Amino acid sequence: MNQIINKKVKFIDLGKKDYKETWDYQESLFAETVALKIENRKNEPEKQQITPNYLLFVEHPHVYTLGKSGELSHLLLNENELADKQATFYKINRGGDITYHGPGQLVGYPLLDLDNFFTDIHKYLRYLEEAIIRTLADYGIEAGRIEGLTGVWLDHIKKVNPRKICALGVKSSRWVTMHGFAFNVNADLSYFGNIVPCGIADKAVTSLHLELGRAIDEEEVKEKVKKHLADLFEMEWEN
To answer: The dihedral of CA 56, 121, 155, 139: what is its sign?
Structure first.
């Protein structure tokens, strides 16, 4: 447990950025925080340093990522077909199966030291989902969870046409998190047709702009998601 609790979070909007570059940046921040936590454990309480927290927002070019529990067969494209679609593919160290990132999608990477908030990964995942659920409610859309599945879903109660609007996949070590969520705002859903999304073959995906029948102001969405995350985690934004 941290001797000094730090609920301040540095928000960084990376704009449009390559997936691998962003992954490397995440890894560097993650490694620095974990190393600081290890060093703190060697020191007396009065000599310990506060651990930082970050929230990164980014929009990636077309890319497919496969988590540790995923199956390569869930990518339905070969190398030439990936190139034709101007998409890349990476195996990565988060949980979960295969997913897609691309233009019109808000990707959020919280790099939090959960010792500053609460040490409960289940609660952490539910809070990420809840921030998106509350954001959708701001647009008049009822969303929620489906038991046994991560992410945020529409038609989650009657399940006549359940469809995922936000995927989750995280990594945690020594209570430091990385990776995060992918929220379809103005996303081109045709790219999801090239995978078995999150390994689930019998459920659809959707995007906020399709549900509302209009283009969505992505900057407005970012502000709403930020607000709900801050409320849920009791964060303070660092200048």
So the answer is: negative
Is 166 known to be catalytic? no
Distance CA 96, CA 99 (A): 9
pLDDT tens per residue, range 154-182: 999 999 999 999 999 999 999 999 999 99
In this structure, the number of other CB atoms found within 10 A of the CB of residue 128 comes to 27
Task: Please write the tens of the pLDDT for every residue from 101-151.
Answer: 999 999 999 999 999 999 999 999 999 999 999 999 999 999 999 998 889
Exposure on the CB side of residue 58, measured as CA atoms within 13 A: 24
Which member of 87, 125, 132, 198 is catalytic?
A: 198
For residue 93, what are the β-bridge partners?
none
Q: What is the mean pLDDT of residues 63-91?
A: 91
Could you write out the DSSP letters of every residue in 132-166?
Answer: HHHHHHHTT---B--TT--SEEESTTT-SS-EEEE
Q: Residues with Cβ < 8 Å from 208, sequence gap 6 or more?
A: 136, 139, 141, 165, 183, 184, 185, 186, 216, 221
Decide: 76 and 194 in contact? Cβ < 8 Å: yes
Rounded to whole angstroms, how far apart are CA atoms 16 and 169?
Answer: 20
C-beta of residue 216 within 8 angstroms of C-beta of residue 209: yes
Give the number of other Cβ atoms within 10 Å of residue 43's Cβ. Answer: 11
